[in-house]
Amino acid sequence: MGTDKKSGSSSPKHIPEGDYERGKKIYKYRCAQCHAIDSKKSMAGPTLHGLFGRVSGTAAGYGVVWTRETLFDYLADPRRYIPGTKMFFVGIKKEQERADLLKYMEVEFSSMGIPEGDYEKGKKIFKQRCSQCHVIDSMAMKTGPSLNGLIGRTSGSVAGFDYSDANKNKGVVWSRETLFEYLADPKKYIPGTKMVFAGIKKPNERADLIKYIEVEGAKSPH
């Protein structure tokens, strides 16, 4: 969604709980003509596959990172949110309908090619392959930044850690989907990163690790 720079826009304080089935209908009648959601193929508009965590226009410097909050604002009035966009969709004025559409997108994205992870297996992977450089139960720094609160955080944003410029400028929001891609090959995902970790090639192992990070990273740090 969107190919141009983001205008100023404030995020809503509250987004209603969405309904998947209603969102599915909204997507079918108001989005599917121009956007695919289940593949990486572009139509009249770009694919929405992997939208959460992606930067608008997929180019560095183009402002907005698509999250639940920014999409909620954008869908109300795309042309106001991104002046000059090629998107001719007039938007969805009703907050509940926007929340329903987001719910559908969230569910569909979360099921695309990412296996359901196993917490205990992920715990072992974290201990063997991550704990030398990262903690997850506190905000302490080791060779790498703390992973506590990682989900929903923007890359390169932990205060006091000396990130590479590549990491700070990437602008990705860490989600289940973006982590799944990143962990396959960190240096390919963020060229120039200081991260020396070669990655995890097996999808199931990445999903296991993400499951552990989701659970432990959401706990309050010691």
UniProtKB/TrEMBL annotation:
Pfam families: Cytochrom_C (PF00034). It is found in: Mitochondrion intermembrane space. It comes from the Eukaryota. Binds 1 heme group per subunit. Gene3D superfamilies: Cytochrome c-like domain. Residues 18-109, 117-217 form the Cytochrome c domain. Keywords: Electron transport, Heme, Iron, Metal-binding, Mitochondrion, Respiratory chain, Transport. GO terms for cellular component: mitochondrial intermembrane space. GO terms for molecular function: electron transfer activity; heme binding; metal ion binding. Electron carrier protein. The oxidized form of the cytochrome c heme group can accept an electron from the heme group of the cytochrome c1 subunit of cytochrome reductase. Cytochrome c then transfers this electron to the cytochrome oxidase complex, the final protein carrier in the mitochondrial electron-transport chain. This is Probable cytochrome c 2.2 (inferred by orthology to a C. elegans protein).
